[in-house]
Predict the structure.
Amino acid sequence: MGMDEKKRRMLELVELLNHARRVYEQEDTEIMSNFEYDKLYDELLALEQELGTTLASSPTVNVGYEVLSELPKERHERPMLSLDKTKEVERLKEFLGGQKAVISWKMDGLTIVLTYQGGTLSKAVTRGNGEVGEVITNNAKVFKNVPLHIPHQGELVLRGEAIIGYRDFEKINEQIEDVDARYKNPRNLCSGSVRQLSNEVTAKRNVRFYAFTLVRAEGVEFENSRARQLAWLGGQGFEVVEHHMVTAESVEEEVQWFSNQIAKNDFPSDGLVLVYDDIAYGQSLGTTAKFPRDSFAFKWADEIRDTTLLEIEWSPSRTGLINPVAIFEPVELEGTTVSRASVHNLSIMEELELGIGDTVQVYKANMIIPQIAENLTRSGKMEIPKACPVCGGATKISMENETKTLYCTNPQCQAKQVKAFALFASRDALNIEGLSEATLEKFILSGFIKDFVDIFHLDRYEEEIKNMEGFGEKSYVNLQNSIERARETTLPRLVYSLGILNIGLANAKVICKALGNDPQRIVNATQEELNDISGVGGVIAGTFVDYFAEEAHRDLFCRLLSEVKLPAEEEAAMAAQVFEGKNFVITGSVVHFANRGEVKEVIEARGGKVTGSVTSKTDYLINNDVQSTSSKNKKARELGIPILSEEDFLAMLE
């Protein structure tokens, strides 16, 4: 196996073992036997010893998470200067003259300086303002690909860029439920992640580090070549920024190669960097007051197109903020067709004096995000809506941080109720797959959904949905099938789906059972009736009765009943309470049931209770892998609790 193959194998093993450990610890699922895990772990350990490299994310290293009260500040040995920049390839040819240079991506993240002593990462500091940075050593230790140990034993100081890729950025952003709290771009997210006080947060953010400059390496000879320095860093286990050797003759071709490549990259880049390969020559030039003279940055000249503004679309969000979005005649930009760009707020709209029919210039910031650069005709003919486009409620203009913004004042606006619709579609409620918060938001803003009942009639908008970004024939058909399946439900699920304050699924089951699974009795339940139900206190009874006291809620419930099919009363009658007073824990995957939630329902319908962890009060642990050495199985054996397979459990039911 060659050196490159060994490095590749090492990365592969780190990924595989971490995945196995993660699903075992978090989901109690074993994707490989202990024997297999140990064998692969030993192979990784041998490779790490042979290559003298250990990645920060390697399972052979146990990095303790640490929380700091604040990040210490530290002054850099030498100020970290910005680079002089140009958008002209001719200027790069002048810079190069007869010299060779290394050309690489100018990555759009956070610059970090790493120091190694005796082969171990000893310090990491952010660029900060160039003179003083923040010490983030604990956080750098949990970057995905930073080596904690390297073969070189002398002091090593290097610089590189911490970045978060677009795919990880989108995944992390989707998990932030409040749309307005989401990060605007990967750089903001990376900056926030790198500068956390708890490195446990940093560890979850998939930050990667790309080395781009070797500052100092004690006792190593690089034959006066930057390219050799980068190759040496690669040999020490660092991921090095993609780079090529370039001369004045080849620079135009190289710039073209990088610009063709940018759309395929998963990481954000805002240009290219050239640095003379001849280290001594570069250092002999010194620096200006602002820039080093041995390097130069190139920014792509933004491709700008003239087009006509067709309309301003007003897009409300769940906080009530209504953002203006410019819709214009489609134009080709950086290889894609673009027809819309966010204007962000009223201040920017007024600054650009936008009006329908104006000739505007549009470009892609960082070759990715469409923006309006200039309005050539500046008619200023734009009416700010007095009513919210989603609910028709009154709007108001607000001034915040010297920025003028537009808000919807109606607290019941559907755009503000995305969470309520998400609960309705969630697994324990109507269980409609394919209706994520992001999709619901699109449907609500497009006017397809105004209340829960509309979800059952999305077929009215079949063509519009199929033509939506991220949708198509297949997604639409899958969603419709899921909606049809959701029509077969139970009364407790339907009651829970309404989102009544304090009414979880367990409470809904208790109330429905006590009221004979009769929808009419549900709507007309009195405080006294509910107070008499064991486990239902005054607070729950109060919110339940208050909800159905509103005519709009009674009407909605009635209309929902006509959309769904509930099991016949005799089927709904509670099964024999064979598990009365018994506590179960369910773990691992299931085969005979759709999911563990279904097993839970069967147990609860028979009077049993399901908890999350094994304790002395647990009566049974259900796990198909009875012989598993998982933590729950071990605990059950220690406490003498029976471990049942699904077959054992089904036999108990019979």
User: Anything to note?
Assistant: Confidence is low (pLDDT under 50) at residues 569-573.
